[in-house]
Amino acid sequence: MRLTGFLPPDAFWAMNGRMDQQVRDGAGLLPLFRINSWDGPMMLGSWQLDGSEGGVMHGNAFSPTGPLVEVVTTTQDPREVARNRWRASAGVPHNLEELQRQDAVFNALHSEQITITAGSSPILFTLWPATDAWLAAGHIGGCGLVIDAQRKPPQPDAVTLSRVSDVEPLLQARRNALKALRGEA
Fold first, then answer.
1. Taking a C-beta distance cutoff of 8 angstroms, is the pair 145, 164 a contact?
2. What is the β-pairing status of strands 112-118 and 33-35?
3. Consecutive sets of 10 residues in the chain, 185 residues long: mean pLDDT of each?
4. Cβ atoms within 10 Å of 146's Cβ, excluding its own
5. What is the pTM of this model?
């Protein structure tokens, strides 16, 4: 990707408004989940425009400090989504050999089974613990859930999830963060 310029505010916010509407339209089909006890910033995280993946970001994604946890709902295999998120930290593979090596490393990582409550249901997750981070992948209903926890996050056994009933506060929080990042706040 090559960045070629700066979008004027009107054009940027019009584009962002269209994306927000796509999220609103898809949020009823792809249930989003949040961490119950989170008292820090929270906003919409990743969102695939095909409706296959959406997340709630806990923490400040635009700052290099403080815990950062994204709870991702996906229509894909949650183990593959977790592996792809791990791969982003391991480095992008440049050829098939590197890709296969990374797959082998991920498959050899220590994992364990844990239970995390989502709504009122105990959900079995596969947990990949690390020193200051962890990944977890499980299923709820017909969807997968992935928790990508980085930068000294809460311990997995301290996490409970609830379904997001209204996506609008998450969109507003993301808009506010983008305004600050763009120097418009």
1. no
2. unpaired
3. 71 92 91 94 93 95 91 97 91 91 93 95 96 95 95 95 96 93 84
4. 26
5. 0.92
Is 150 within 8 Å of 45 (Cβ atoms)? no
Distance CA 64, CA 50 (A): 29
d(C-alpha 54, C-alpha 5), whole Å: 28
SS (H, E, C) the chain: CCCCCCCCHHHHHHHHHHHHHHHHHHHCCCCCEEECCCCCCEEEEEECCCCCEEEEEECCCCCCCCCEEEEEEECCCHHHHHHHHHHHHHCCCCCHHHHHHHHHHHHHCCCEEEEEEECCEEEEEEEEECCCCEEEEEEECCEEEEEEEECCCCCHHHCCEEECCCCHHHHHHHHHHHHHHCCCC
Structure tokens at 150: 């980085």
The type of residue at 181 is: L
